[in-house]
Design a protein that fits this description.
Layout (H helix, E strand, L loop, with lengths): L1 E3 L6 E3 L3 E3 L11 E5 H10 L4 E7 L5 E6 L3 H11 L4 H8 L8 E8 L2 H15 L20 E3 L6 E3 L5 E2 L4 E2 L4 H14 L1 H6 L1 H44 L1 H22 L1
Antiparallel strand pairs: 1-2, 3-4, 5-6, 5-7, 8-9, 10-11
The structure holds zinc ion (2 copies).
Length: about 260
């Protein structure tokens, strides 16, 4: 298979072209339009400057980023991104044009790693600001992994305050409290639907359970094993906080069963 390079216009073997990476996910199996040689040359000619930069929108929103190719080159990348990055998504959603944005260099660095750490610290210090567009604080060497910011309430909390997702093998981005609030709101919002379809939903749940029994039990067991201490702690706290309620319930249960037993005999 052969292909003509869009830059040097020479027809070359397909092995002379790079495959598009996962970053250009939409068309994974496409080949880059420029040949390897032309791409390498372009990379070599690209200006090099470690810029920690800020992009400001007229509405007050701003984005913090860093680049090793200088702010001008990075600006072109943001323009090309067309909604696939945080900044370009904001531009698209608010029908802004590139002319509306103010790009400025916060600081220039000699060492790119030093720049990335400064970038992390800057985003971290602005994270609770509702005008900051960055969704995440980048992870760098020296990041304290025992706590993190919730992407929802923007409060820094210890790692235990986040649910561990076994399927993703990482912690959830919103904290437990925010996740619980969201679930509760969802249930509230769908209350009528559930009430109206109670039986059907119960039937569907039961069918699903029967069909996936082994898998569900296995997952449950694994979850329990992994979170044993946390679960025990929660139970202890619950018992502590609901002492009276539990005692009352136990008493009623005992009484009801005693009567039942007497009747049965
Ligand atoms: Zn070429
Ligand atoms: Zn939260």
């Amino acid at each position: 298979m052969k292909k003509t390079c869009s830059k040097c216009k020479i027809e070359k073997e397909i092995t002379e072209f790079y495959k598009k990476t996962a970053r250009n996910r939409k068309d994974t199996h496409e080949w880059r339009s420029r040949c390897k040689g032309c791409m390498r040359r372009a990379a070599h000619e690209r200006p090099k400057a470690n810029h920690l930069y800020k992009v400001e929108c007229p509405s007050g929103y701003y984005y913090i980023g860093s680049t090793i190719v200088g702010i001008e080159q990075r600006r072109r990348c943001h323009i090309r991104a067309k909604g696939s990055t945080t900044l370009s998504k904001h531009i698209k959603e608010n029908s802004l044009s590139q002319e509306d944005l103010k790009y400025s260099v916060v600081k220039e660095f000699q060492d790119p790693e030093e720049m990335r750490i400064a970038e992390r610290d800057l985003i971290r210090s602005c994270y609770a600001d509702p005008f900051l567009l960055n969704k995440r604080i980048p992870l760098r060497n020296g990041t304290d992994m025992s706590k993190r910011f919730c992407t929802k309430c923007k409060i820094e909390k210890p790692l235990e305050e986040f649910y561990y997702r076994r399927d993703k093998e990482s912690y959830d981005s919103p904290c437990k409290q925010c996740t619980n609030t969201r679930l509760r709101e969802y249930r509230e919002a769908n209350k009528e639907y559930y009430e109206a379809n109670k039986e059907e939903i119960a039937k569907r749940d039961k069918e699903y359970y029967e069909a996936n029994k082994e898998k569900i039990l296995k997952t449950k067991k694994e979850y329990y094993e992994a979170n044993k201490e946390e679960i025990a702690k929660q139970r202890r706290e619950y018992r502590e906080a609901n002492k009276e309620k539990i005692a009352k319930y136990a008493k009623e249960y005992y009484k009801a069963n005693k009567e039942k037993k007497l009747l049965d005999n």
